[in-house]
Amino acid sequence: MPLSQKKDNFIDKAFTVMAELIVKAMPIDEQEKKAYIYYREGLSAQDRGDYSEALECYEESLTLEMNAIDRSETLKNMAIIYMSNGDEERALETYMKSLEENPKQPSCLKNMGLIYEKRGRLAQQSGNLDEADIWLDRAAEVWTKAVRLYPGGYLDIENWLKTSGRSNVDIYF
Q1: Any idea what DSSP says for residue 83?
Q2: I need a surface site. Which of 60, 103, 135, 140 has the fewest CB within 10 A?
Q3: Domain ranges of the chain
Q4: What pLDDT was estimated at residue 96?
Q5: Burial of 22 (C-beta count, 10 Å sphere; 0-12/13-18/19+)
Q6: Can you say whether the dihedral through the CA atoms of 32, 34, 37, 39 is positive or negative?
C-alpha cells in the first residue's frame, strides 16, 4: 500500500473515532446517536465497496433516525448504491423518497436526470424519438430544479439545458 494511502486511511480512521467520541458525548437522544453510528458504518462500507453491508447499515439507521434531513442523506446514499449496481428503478424510487424527506437535495435531482437522460439517449439510438423526447424532457425537468437549488454547481447540466433548448434562460443566476 502506498504511503499516501496509508496516511489517508489513518486520517479517515482518526476522524471516524473522533466523530464517534463527539457524538457519544453530545447531549442528544441515544436513538439518534445509534442512528448516526449506523450511518457512519454505512458510509465506511460504501467507501470500501461493500455495498451489501452499507445497505444493511443504512436500513438500520433509517429505523432509528427521526430527523428528515438525515433520513434524506441516508436514502440518497442508498440510491447511489442502487444506481451503481444498475438497479435504476430502485434508485429512482429511493431518490424520490429522499426528496420527500428533504425536497432541497439537488444531487438527487441531478442523479435522477442522469438516469432519464441515459434512457433518452438509448431510445434515440433505437430510433424511438417520441420516447426519447419523453425521457429527455423528464431529465430537463429535474435538472432545472437541481440548477435552481444549486446555481453554478452543475455547469455541464446548465450547458445541456441551454443547448438542448429544454429550459428557460431565466433559471440561471
Answers
A1: H
A2: 103
A3: 1-87, 104-173
A4: 98
A5: exposed
A6: negative
Specify the amino acid at residue 72.
Answer: S
CB 149 within 8 A of CB 109: yes
Q: Smallest Cα–Cα separation from 40: which of 84, 5, 73? A: 73
Q: State the sign of the Cα–Cα–Cα–Cα dihedral 107, 109, 112, 117.
A: negative
Question: In this structure, what C-alpha cell is assigned to residue 59?
Answer: 436500513
Q: What percent of the chain has pLDDT over 70?
A: 80
**The predicted structure's pLDDT at residue 5:** 43
Look up the pTM and report it.
0.82
In angstroms and rounded to an integer, the radius of gyration of the C-alpha atoms of the chain is: 19
CA 127 – CA 108 distance, rounded (Å): 29
* 19-55 residue pLDDT tens: 565 556 555 678 888 999 999 999 999 999 999 999 9
What CATH topology corresponds to 1-87?
Answer: 1.25.40
Distance, in Å, from the CA atom of 138 to the CA atom of 144, rounded to the nearest integer, reads: 10
pLDDT in tens, 136-154: 999 999 999 999 999 989 9
Q: What are phi and psi of 29, to 5 degrees?
A: -55, 140
C-alpha cell recorded at residue 137: 424532457
